[in-house]
Amino acid sequence: MSRKTIGWNGKTVKEMLEESEKLIEEKKSYHGIQNLSLKEEDPFRYERAYASLRGALVSARETALHVAASPIVTEIGELCFALYTPEGDSIAVSTGILVHVHTMSEGIKFMIREGYEEDPTINQGDIFLNNDPQCGNVHTTDVQTLIPIFWEDELIGWAGGVTHQIDIGGITPGHTLVSSIQRFDDGAYYTCRKIGSNDKIWRDHMIGAKKSVRSPMYWELDEKCRLAGNLMIRDAVYDFIKREGIEYYKQFMREAIEEGRRIVQERVKERLIPGRYRASSFMDLPMKDQAWVPIAREDKISNHPIEVIVKEDGSFSLSFDGASAGGANAFNCDKGAMEGGQWVLLTQILIYGDKVNDGAYFAVEKDYPLGTWANPGDPYLSYQAPWGNLIPAYTTMMKCISYGLFSRGFREEVVPGYGFTGDSIQGGGVFSAGPLLGERWMLSTFEISGQGLGASAVRDGLNWGYAMWNPEADLGDVETWELFQGGIPYLSRKVKPNTPGHGKFRGGANYGSVAFIANSEKVEFFAGREGLVFHGSGGMHGGYPNATSYRLSGTNTNLEEIFRNKQDYPIDDADPSNGQFERFLKGDIKRLPIGTIYPIALENYDIIHFAESGGPGYGDPLERRVDSIKRDLDDGLYTSDIVNKVYGVVATYDDKSEEWLIDEEATKKRQEDIRNERKDKSMTFEEYWEYERKKLTEGKLYEAVSKMYSESLKLSSKWGKEFREFWKFPEDFQMEVK
Amino acid sequence: MNVDKKTLERMIEGDLKWDELKPIISGRKDQNRFDKIMEILQEKVKWNERILLPLHEHLYIVAKEGERIVKCDCGHEFGDYNVNWKTKCRVRVRDTIEAIDELYPKFMGSDPEWEELREYYCPGCLTLLDVEAAPPGYPTIFNFLPDIDAFYENWLGRSPPDKK
Fold first, then answer.
1. Are A525 and A406 within one domain?
2. Which residues form the domain of A666?
3. Which residue of B38, B93, B119 is in closest CB contact with A691?
4. Which residues of B touch A539 (CB under 8 A)?
């Protein structure tokens, strides 16, 4: 005898999901709703109802992170809660890391489609755990807890909470593993698994889960945090139903999502211009000389072309047609990652407000072409560090929307992009001395949450204060990071010059830090950031991209002796061509032009430099005000040689007044020289076209570049056709890979 | 919020202090912003063609002799707005380490074998209009092609200025 159904009116939840999808397809509105009748009949009741649920989610988040949570969660708020319909569509989302507007939704839908209703069954008090990128997650390090909410015998929704782990038990310590190349390197996988019942996490699960990661205490804290928040949300839903009635709740959830869909269309029509928008970004994966496994030993550059079409009805579509291929690297993205990257940005730049839910998801058409990094279609690849592609790729969407905002007159909203959330330095080791002897420490600093934001069309970019994946970006306290990454104490953190992208309005600036290994053994260190290419799609309207990353380390050093003798030690790398590492240290000083490195072994008194990212600039640098450049110099954001070459500003430092003084006459002359140089060193577009085309036909392209073209040409007929037409190549042209 | 014309003029010039700009960013948007900006820009440019849409800090789509063309505030005309205006620019390619190191300290710029910089200048005034960071051989990107008629007719509910 089959089990009693848990859907509404005798239906299974699977039938409800199918019906919901059919109605959206046929009626082009959520559940076929034409009128927001609850809102129209009693708007105050409707708004109060929404605010009560939204408030409950925010409250759950704020409370849960203080109940029990790891430092990443408590310090920078890497968690989010949401309330879903029985079919898995989000009704309301808390504040926090809004990557997850739609991610947990896919997890719920996966369980419904896979028949969880029958087996393993879905009951009041059950607890499900998911971190599988094939089921809506971003990467394994984001861990989701989902609980069903029943009213009498009917499933009336789900509560979901997600936190970011410090470690997930992958191939190396860390949270975003660059050396992961297949699913089996990604760490612990929980594919929508039932892990508890009667509101209690099963003991056998907790024992096993804690053994699967390198930070078991933080794992347990975060599991409790997510469950506590979900139970608070369930209570809030029951309060809502007792107050408003179950029938009101059922209709309300549908109308709230339809309203969310309409809000997107209205906002698009208010802020943008219908039309076609395009941009491209790129990311380097310099793995040829680094990867451990032969199949991964290749240098690769990812192509991230985007096309956004804003339609007359205010809806819009987004396509990554022309993207290059996925592969044996950690940067592959599945749908959850693509949706996550998209929503965390759209909620910041276009549809910010309290009514963000899956209605927004239904208002946007997407194309993540099969075989590309945006949808490799191979579950056995690694999806461990999709941010490697997501972060640069979605600068393109930000830039596209900014073109529309600019034309519509909302120049204050323009942002051409943001800095890569790196240096994401990671790894860990074991204490070899001190009170924590034998304990493992994790290097997982989330001061990457404070990057440079791009300039707008009316002001400079925000300094050290933005992370694309967290609207409440906060780089946290060094002291807290040092608590759990105690084997690598900071020697300094200070402004690093020349990180902002140049422009009339410069991008945000950022810090550089120096740290060394102490009281440890078995230390692994790695990092992820762009290095050989500029980040994202660069500046806008004449602005330049922000500076790239590089790696600097010192091994076999005399740092211990320097400390003992109280001598100067490196506290920055302000001038990489005349660095303090080389001047102050004896040892093996290594500089690499790449930002992403596989794990290396470090020992006590080895020393590293790492720098966070600046943001891209806006407008012609020659239009930047001289007094702004003086302030940049005084604040140490740029050096005088760079402002001379880029901005044409001639300045000297006055030791007496301790400020930079501008030579106005010399500046005028220098800027005139730059203008003349622009004419002398440029060519007509026709000349440029001939010059550039030769690079494609002479067979001298670097292998990573020719491979990128080869992949894009094979994966997209549309992108390939436009490429061939632009360069006047024959229709059957293919790129030969050396 | 209703931002007055003078404040918008100052905003365009980059003159607003943060405490003046912040309410404009975080407040409700003024519904007639487009018209106010258009009025300011039309008064600002030194030529007489009617602006249909601001496209760029220095470029506008304007109506001229029955055509819709891209025009720089210096007066240089780029032709049909349906054709990428970048293909009418002068271009400097920075595809050597030396050329990139002029702009960024050593190690803090791209490797030109992987990615180069293309600088697009207005042929009339040599203003730097765009910088593309792209691998060698990447086609010039056509960033924005607006649907002017749909915008005016369907979103603003009136005919475009050149079709009245």
1. yes
2. 625-681
3. B93
4. 131
